[in-house]
Amino acid sequence: MNENRIEHYPVVIVGGGQAGLSTSHHLRAQGIDHLVLEKHRAMHAWSTQRWDTFCLVTPNWQCDLPGHPYQGDDPDGFMKKDEILAYLAGFRARVDPPIREGVTVRRVSPRAGGGFHVSTTSGEVSADNVVVASGGYHEPIVPRMAERLPGAVAQIHSAEYRNAGQLPAGAVLVVGSGQSGAQIAEDLHLAGRKVFLAVGNAPRCARFYRGRDVVAWLADMGYYDMPVEEHPLREGVRDNTNHYVTGRDGGRDIDLRKFAAEGMELYGALRDYDGGRLVFDTNLRAALDDADRTYNGINAAIDTHIATHNVVAPPPSVYEPVWQPADERETLDLASSGIAAIVWCIGFRPDFRWLDAPVFNGAGHPQHRRGVTAREGIYFIGLPWLHTWGSGRFGSVGRDAEHIVAHIAARTLKESAA
Length: 418
Known about the structure:
- This protein has helices spanning 18-29, 44-48, 81-95, 179-190, 214-220, 256-261, 284-308, 334-337, 397-417; strands spanning 7-14, 34-38, 64-65, 68-69, 99-101, 105-110, 116-120, 123-132, 139-140, 154-157, 171-175, 195-198, 208-209, 212-213, 265-267, 270-274, 277-280, 331-333, 339-344, 348-349, 378-380.
- The protein is α/β, with parallel strands linked by helices.
- The strands form 6 sheets. Strands 1, 2, 5, 6, 7, 8 and 21 form a 7-stranded mixed beta sheet that branches. Strands 10-19-11-12-15 form a 5-stranded parallel beta sheet. A 3-stranded antiparallel beta sheet has the order 16-17-18.
- Helix 4 (179-190) links the parallel strand 11 (171-175) and strand 12.
- Helix 1 (18-29) runs parallel beside helix 3 and helix 1 (18-29) packs across helix 9.
- It starts with 6 loop residues before the first strand and ends with a helix.
């Protein structure tokens, strides 16, 4: 292969979501030539991996992509799916990135003489720098036990769920109670479906407390500007499950206990399928108590902030459980339960096998400091807690992109002067 004939770019960005396009915005502002490669279409996940009633769980005023802040008439509301897509389409139009869609990056590897060789389904390119903006949610997780379930039971991952009507008539088992699991369980519950929910260890938080959205209180308290190095868990916070809450219908708490009181059946974490029976951990009571403890702990921190700063606000309160499990049911007969479908809401695993660079830890996760790795020229952006809570969200991904581009610009200047 004659590498002299390969297209060369100072920067190749892998991924055309909000992280990749935020990076493109700042590269263009610096006058740095670059190319964005996207496997599907820009913002693909937002249009194809969200259910019909999906909405943001963060208020609209936190939508602040580079040069494209929220400008609607409901800053304290929560954009619905079609509004999110319109907002992102506007961002793409504003950035006007040099993007090639429908192009899969097969491999990125070191190039003789420096830089990187980028092999794609549409040809070969080379780059001095590669920014990995493909996120960390690549492969839907479905446990191997799913292979042993009866073929008559429909099974989908949360990324495939759209609405209750796509599932066969009958009860639905939702596995997992993170943001997706809790919201999908609510969606099915509100649609009148019988729901069984296998509850995990996800925490929860209030939507509103003492007269304001909890997000607004936490912003005032500086939580969203806290770098990962200052968080009590340090890098361990990147493995945390997000708190479940919703922006649906103007925003409200998600209270699994309330759902249970209304007829949803709650179990502990799903452990196995054996002899026609679903087998669960006996951790339901502990999981609910832990979620409520986090809920009340966040509110208590807000109470302290209010008292410390003499903020005028409605009086404090403490959540008291509206339902308690009578017992810890360890098994459920699949046939007699009437379960006709299962929605797996247990997340995704990353897949960076295409990146040939020594930038990963023993668990296969990228090692970096605010997206900058120890390997010159390799960067990550858009990962949860890359730098702050908002690194994987519309609110702060632009600041991370600006930081990475500044690093690229400084490196380019240094090498050109050498």
